């Protein structure tokens, strides 16, 4: 089964693929403005703390289950469940995870299509294709359908090639490109007037807000969603890991890389916002908070680039190439969740399963696009604010309450022989069993309170 399913051929391949899954659009536009609105450097400190206190233990639960079972989410949770009732619960949780991953990809592909549009727009401008450039930045159903289809086709083309030749190869190409583009943009933005104001807001902590419940909950949510936990992406990637790899080490590196990219995004986006303010653009909403989300990416930042003249066209191309890469590395992991189940449960060829699932998800995206005002926000809220934490809670429960502790230890020990004497094993089993579910329940409760 292992050969048929494929596996990552190197540590670097897994780290880049798993980090790519975790690094998404929300990291790049969500983390910086969350930090600015919640105590600047105080939020950054709390985020890094919670990334390792909550996200890392939950990530480990997915990786251990995945590598032990070498299966998709549905089969994996059933495999570690000892009783009939727990197997049924594992089956239902697995199917729910596949559904949520598919729904996330359905709306994610729409937003990623917008990124492609804003990447192609400066290209069209340079070529003198003003009509095309205008169409790319217009908000129309046809444009959204075409760009969403194009993005999903790109995602499917990676998944079709398999684990080594698709996911691993392209992650090893795209992630270094993402790092280089981000580093180059940070240097460029830092040299512009006004950038230092954004940098101060981002890095100088307001320690009076450090224990503010709003800051803590915001950092908690960012840390959890940052690593794409709950929907089985990390479980699937764990199932492609070789037995000799140390899971605690791998999980720690992925958490660190993901957190570092979120931090770098702040070094780019917040200074860029204040550069835009220096040029006369408004960076605050009517309520007095910093512009965030789609308004930041599709209004303020493009307006900043246009004010830069000819050089702004090239900077815009690099920025939206960066955003498109971040979207693609996340989308390939989400698509692998339903594809892996289809391949293993129905003995379907990878190519057929990929394009079939891709077509179904595009159909879902099309329904959302056509009924955008009614469905988009609803799907985002149900999938990310409620379903992901609930699924993360269930995976922690299966890894620590349902699965036998000795089997968990045996699986971790295969790549880390002395793990029983390590600080990790002295803390993680109890922490993941009690603390993680409580923290996730807090996150869920906060989501309901804010709804």
From TrEMBL:
Family matches, as SUPFAM superfamilies: SNF-like
Principal subcellular localisation of the protein: membrane
Pfam assignment, any one: SNF
Transmembrane intervals: 12-31, 43-65, 94-120, 140-162, 174-195, 215-238, 250-274, 311-335, 355-380, 431-449
Family matches, as PROSITE patterns: NA_NEUROTRAN_SYMP_3
Alphabetical list of InterPro entries matching this protein: Na/ntran_symport, SNS_sf, YocR/YhdH-like
GO cellular component: membrane
Keyword Protein biosynthesis recorded: no
Alphabetic keyword roster: Membrane, Transmembrane, Transmembrane helix, Transport
Tree of life domain: Bacteria
Localization per record: Membrane
Name of the protein described by the UniProt record: Sodium-dependent transporter
């Amino acid at each position: 089964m292992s050969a048929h399913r494929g596996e990552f051929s190197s540590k670097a391949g897994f780290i880049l693929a798993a980090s790519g899954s975790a690094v998404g659009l929300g990291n790049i536009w969500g983390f910086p403005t969350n930090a600015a609105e919640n105590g600047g450097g105080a939020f950054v400190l709390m985020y890094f703390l919670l990334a390792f206190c909550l996200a890392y233990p939950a990530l480990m639960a997915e990786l251990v289950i995945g590598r032990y079972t070498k299966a998709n989410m549905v089969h994996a949770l059933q495999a570690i469940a000892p009783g009939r009732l727990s197997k049924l619960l594992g089956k239902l949780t697995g199917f729910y995870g596949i559904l949520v991953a598919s729904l996330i990809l359905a709306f994610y592909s729409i937003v990623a299509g917008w990124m492609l549009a804003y990447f192609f727009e400066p290209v069209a401008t340079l070529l003198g294709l003003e009509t095309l450039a205008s169409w790319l930045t217009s908000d129309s159903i046809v444009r959204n359908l075409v760009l969403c289809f194009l993005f999903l086709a790109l995602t499917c083309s990676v998944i079709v090639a398999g684990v080594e030749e698709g996911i691993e190869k392209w992650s090893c190409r795209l992630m270094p490109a993402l790092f280089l583009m981000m580093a180059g943009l940070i240097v460029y933005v830092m040299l512009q007037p006004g950038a230092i104001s954004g940098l101060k807001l981002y890095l100088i902590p307001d320690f009076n807000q450090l224990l503010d419940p709003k800051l803590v909950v915001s950092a908690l949510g960012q840390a959890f969603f940052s690593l794409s936990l709950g929907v089985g992406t990390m479980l699937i990637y764990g199932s492609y890991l070789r037995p000799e790899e140390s899971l605690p080490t791998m999980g720690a590196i992925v958490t660190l890389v993901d957190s570092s990219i979120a931090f770098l995004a702040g070094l780019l986006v917040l200074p860029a916002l204040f550069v835009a303010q220096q040029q006369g653009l408004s960076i605050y909403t009517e309520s007095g908070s910093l512009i965030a989300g789609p308004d930041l990416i599709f209004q303020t930042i493009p307006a900043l680039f246009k004010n830069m003249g000819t050089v702004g066209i090239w900077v815009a191309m690099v920025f939206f190439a960066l955003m498109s890469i971040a979207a693609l590395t996340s989308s390939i992991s989400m698509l692998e969740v339903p594809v892996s189940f289809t391949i293993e449960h129905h003995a379907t060829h990878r190519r057929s399963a990929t394009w079939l699932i891709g077509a179904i998800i595009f159909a879902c995206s099309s329904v959302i696009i056509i009924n955008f005002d009614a469905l988009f926000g609803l799907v985002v809220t149900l999938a990310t604010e409620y379903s992901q934490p609930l699924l993360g809670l269930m995976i922690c429960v299966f890894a620590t309450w349902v699965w036998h502790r000795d089997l968990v230890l045996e699986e971790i020990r295969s790549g880390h022989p002395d793990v029983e004497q390590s600080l990790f094993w002295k803390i993680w089993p109890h922490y993941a069993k009690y603390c993680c579910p409580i923290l996730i329940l807090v996150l869920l409760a906060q989501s309901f309170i804010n709804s």
